[in-house]
Amino acid sequence: MSQCQHQTIHQKDYKVPDYLVDTVELTFDLSPEDTRVLSRLAIRSNHDRSNGASPLVLDGEELTLVSLKLDGVEVKRDAYRVDDASLTLLAPPESFVLEVETRIKPKENSALSGLYASGPMLCTQCEAEGFRRITYFTDRPDVMAVYTVTLRADKASCPVLLANGNLVDRGDLPDGRHFAVWHDPFKKPSYLFAVVAGDLVHIADRFTTMSGRAVQLEIYVEERNKDKCEHALRSLMRAMRWDEEKFGREYDLDTYMVVAVDDFNMGAMENKGLNVFNSRYVLASPESATDDDYEAIEEVIGHEYFHNWTGNRITCRDWFQLSLKEGLTIFRDQEFSADMQSRPVKRIADVKSLRSAQFAEDAGPLAHPVRPESYVEINNFYSMTVYHKGGEVIRMLQTLLGREAFRAGMDLYFERHDGQAVRVDEFVQAMADAGKRDLSQFMLWYDQAGTPVLTVSDDYRPESGSYTLTVTQSCPSTPGQPEKKPFHIPLAMGLLDRDGNELPLQLAGEAAAAGTSRVLELRGETETFTFAGIKERPVPSLLRNFSAPVKLQYPYSDEDLNLLMTRDSDPFVRWEAGQVQAVKLIMGLTGEIQAGRQAQVPESFIESFRRLLADDSQDRAFLAETLTLPAESYLAEQMAVIDPDAIHQARELVRSTVGRRLWSELTAVRAACAPKAPYRPDDGLAGCRRLKNLCLAYLMAAGGQEAIDACMAQYRSADNMTDSLGALAQLTSCACPERDEALASFYDCWRGDRGVIDKWFTHQALSRLPDTMDRVLALLEHPDFDLRNPNRVRSLVGAFSQGNQVRFHDAGGRGYRFLADQILRLNAINPQIAARMLTPFSRWRRYDAHRQELMKKELERILAEPGLARDVYELAAKSL
Ligand code: B3K
Ligand code: ZN
């Protein structure tokens, strides 16, 4: 297909469907080589037919049409057309039953969209547009139907047959085959359809909902993984209870099934009653999963469960509204995790990932609004912006309305729109009505791309005791949006006196102070807020809890930052004050290094680390966050022209100086955090382990055999993956014989466990050693490397190009050539994964002329490839 045939779809062109489908009856004769699909659709017209019938266009890709009947009669060849993307009935009647028989080849489906084979099973992925790879259909989310599905397969190789809804019949068939019939009483869009068939086992439990209904919960896996599902099952039960308690939402079917699949394009999929999961978000055991893995499983299990109300019961009218379900559900899963773990630490982690990945997206050629205006391939818009900035937009609504009104808005949204496919506008309207607020300006968060910058200045008048904050907002141009209107921004803040006391906040004109923390609302380009009764010049504590996804500029002195860091009541501000200092320091050192001058870490910085390490009153996980230096990717964002080598050297200089100068303090904290009992993932000591491993990282940065010995000792004695990986991760960046020894023993111990071997690939790809590129090239040839498995691709190609800034951006350009080569190979196998790998190239303009030239050349090479998939074409073309 020539590339100019890749069409752009625009939001403004939305039209209601000409035909609706009320019921779908599907019969599958399953086999990996050749599956037959019979579809029986009850269709009715949804348009004005006074000028005749509109054609009915059904989407379909990679299908072989076998037969087509309308109301039981074979459709004549001149009454329909078929091409490689659709089947068109030229003039169908007002209402009718259409029967379509097609054949598909699951085993040849390496794109992992539609029906495909993964290990011993067949499974589906339909979001966004995979259903059309199973059968002909109006494959758009505003066509919602009731589905009945019959599955037939060989009983010995395929004992388990699952689909959405409730099992209504099952039995044996001749020739060793069997069948199962599933009925889903809830109307749903085709993207929520799912089928799984294979040789699986399951673990189960029962959940009693708040109204007393019993729900059967089942987690399906391959036999060898049966003892790794407990945590997922418990997480599911916690999520179900949490949604009842926090949002009053109850589960609605009799069964809830989760299936773990090894080959999966993303994290998981919320299909009604039958979630399909990437096995990395289901399987966990203490020996093989880290604390982070446990947390991630709980979060993703929660996320997919919460979709049942925010996504499934109320779905999107069209794909431009994707954030209606994704932003909202991200917000819900973040709140769930915050309630299950430490709220401040969770918030910090979310802000970190938003700022390094979403802010970068917003600042580059692929910037798009939370609700995009157009797309070529919708799968490219399952982005940090739609998901995570979308989540922040929901959080801002909660901040503006207050928790109570926000909850009332959620209730109103469910009440008004249950069973419908709606737009973001309907959601925001429910919030506006419940909160009695005008949110029309707030809608700009959905339609304007780019990260706003808040520039704050202040003025203190001792004679009148008044303190004025002046806040100016601006937003850089983004593709297609040169000018921006001001946003409606909640700015949470407080004021501290020089002793760190929080001051009562009384705005001029107000009768009394309203607490010591409040939300200022910014609407105009410049806003001023004057506080009365302030006895000395205060230090402003701004953007508490990161109340808006913006960049904040205020000329804090080191003294101000120290005060905020030690005294502010808001944990996010305390953490951020430390980060701002660290950014300042590392950027300063970067400049020195670039200028060829001797760079040195100031004593004051070492002293503040020393104080932090001595303070055992703090939560360990929070302390670990405070002691973690900003990531190289975040530091890069702060530079006009990114210099990956100088950033890396500067950051390493700080790390090694801290390691050397605070050796005994780090050793002591590490010892204090040493395990006192055998590991349990829920022992409440994950924060301790994180801090301990961070200390080890600093010791290793200092260098020397003693640190290596400590690492090896921890590696050998660890009874859990967090600690063994904590040691291995450090050894992989150390040019010592112990490195190869540990890597070899780790491989020998874990060969055969896909999830752990992924980690083995990842940590080698993340190594800071100069020979990493060669090692990565060698790993490409490793018998366990497989370009058809998305997790493996992410673990090697993704980790190296997106997580190893200094080695990937090597000025020789080998990293770039390597990535382009892999993208071109992936293009032919799995376009969605190929497109995901393009991200680093989209940032090429941020580098020096030499690197720009090299990256551009690779992008051009990719674009010149004949047969480039839509996914890859769109991102490569927009990046250039
Ligand atoms: N809704 C799915 C994502 C589907 C991605 C399609 N390319 C998982 C989730 O967000 O819950
Ligand atoms: Zn989601």
Q: How many β-strand stretches?
A: 31
- Terminal CA distance: 21 Å
Q: What hetero molecules are bound to the protein chains?
A: (3S)-3,7-diaminoheptanoic acid, zinc ion
> What is the helix fraction of residues, given as a range?
40-55%
CATH architecture group name of the domain at 607-879? Alpha Horseshoe
Largest sheet strand order:
6-5-9-3-2-12-15-14
Low-confidence stretches: none
| SS class | alpha+beta
The shape is globular
Task: Just give the CATH class of the domain at 607-879.
Answer: Mainly Alpha
Q: Beta-strand level of the residues, as a percent range?
A: 15-25%
User: Sheet bearing the most strands, described?
Assistant: 8 strands, mixed
Q: Tell me the number of helical segments per DSSP (H or I, 4 or more residues long).
A: 28
CA-atom Rg in angstroms: 28 Å
In CATH, the topology of the domain at 607-879 is named Zincin-like fold
Oligomerization status of the protein chains = single chain
Whole-number average pLDDT?
97
CATH homologous superfamily assignment of the domain at 607-879: Peptidase M1, alanyl aminopeptidase, C-terminal domain
